[in-house]
Amino acid sequence: MNFIIISGQSGAGKSQAKKVFEDLGYYCIDNLPPSLIPNFVELVEQNSEGIHNIALVIDIRGGRFFKDLEDHLEGLKQRHYEYKIFYFEANDDILVKRFKETRRTHPLDPTGRIEDALASEKQILETLKDQAHYVINTSNLTHAELKAEITRYLDLSEGDQSLNLTIMSFGFKKGLPLDADFVFDVRFLPNPYYIEDLKHRTGNEAAVQSYVMGFEESRQLMTHIQSLLDFAMPGFMREGRSQLVIAIGCTGGQHRSVTFANLLAAYYREQHYPVKCVHRELD
């Protein structure tokens, strides 16, 4: 049997994720107390219907039982069952908006402020997030995009294991990406925004890329970024990480960061890493 553990922040899309796994043929159970995992495994083992792919939604709705999750997951390992943890999160402002729109209360503190409950929940879930095989931020994902993300990660887990890279460009004036593992600042490089012919173009165009990379400091920075990541990525893989988010920021997220993200994505595709390139401010 293969187990998927669906967990993460309240309001981050776990219910939608459960529907995706059901569409993919998984037998899904919502809000299972971790203490019942051994009983459930025994029940499935005795079942003659041949259930092989199982997704369990486990989160803080389990109350005090949630604290026992790590021990029961270790029990799955001892019984030689494979499992992957899918952790779903979203930006605080998005979560607050979702709670207000649906008029729901936060399960951790139904009578208190949503912001306080979110902060407490993050602290409780911190260890689980660190152990997660895949972390998906649903802030700007449609249902179709969420399904595509989940399917992509499942394809990776079923095939040759590699480090899945998301390389993102962004603008500092719109804030840091919260899910980034590495953040590189390229604002010190010459800015095409001040070149009239390039001002309204983006780093997706060859003319902007040629300008940005036409400076020695740009080429040196790219070499340093590649060297650092080449050094660090095998270590992340040894630790069991299967996903890495690399963010590159400039002022507006239009020219320099987009150029670097595109070139860095091309560099790692040539090395046969699974790469998704995202331009936050353009997309």
The SS-based structural class is alpha/beta
Which strand order spans the largest sheet, edge to edge or round the barrel? 2-3-1-4-5
- The total of beta strands comes to 9
Question: How many structurally independent domains?
Answer: 2
Number of helices: 9
| Portion in strands | 15-25%
Give structural notes.
Residues 1-154 form the RapZ-like N-terminal domain. InterPro entries: P-loop_NTPase, RapZ-like, RapZ-like_N, RapZ_C. Keywords: ATP-binding, GTP-binding, Nucleotide-binding. The protein is of the alpha/beta class and 283 residues long. 42% of the residues lie in helices and 19% in strands. It has helices at 14-23, 37-46, 69-78, 92-102, 114-131, 143-158, 206-212, 216-238, 256-270; strands spanning 2-8, 27-30, 53-57, 82-89, 134-137, 164-171, 182-185, 243-250, 275-279. Strands 2-3-1-4-5 form a 5-stranded parallel beta sheet, sandwiched between helices. A 4-stranded parallel beta sheet has the order 7-8-6-9, with helices on one face. Helix 2 links the parallel strand 2 (27-30) and strand 3. Helix 1 packs across helix 6 (143-158). The longest helix is centred in the last third of the chain and has 23 residues, at 216-238. The model has no long low-confidence stretch (mean pLDDT 87).
